[in-house]
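Fold it.
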Amino acid sequence: MNTFEDPLTRGASNSSKSLGKAQGFYVLNSFTEFTLFHLFTANITEGDFKGTIDIFGQVREVDPVRYLTVIGGTGAFLGARGLASCTLVDIDHTPPAKWTLSFDLDLYY
């Protein structure tokens, strides 16, 4: 199990405008392939819409697009449900490894 607290930005670059941080954990959950179970909160503290979005699901490294479930939110995202589509933008394998991911959210209230 690993925990993380990573920056959320408007674009795929770490130099893009900050929106807040993603905080959560992931667990390796397969003996036969590289899959991770993720549970995290996107804590959005900047911009016109502030609040949290709670996301969870399984991520398989081999999938070009990974689909996670939006299970709730607070503030401007109160009661949000939907789909978070995740794509890998970049990975730096230099320890500690750093993944840059891009998320598209389809939210329903």
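The first strand starts at residue 2 and ends at 9.
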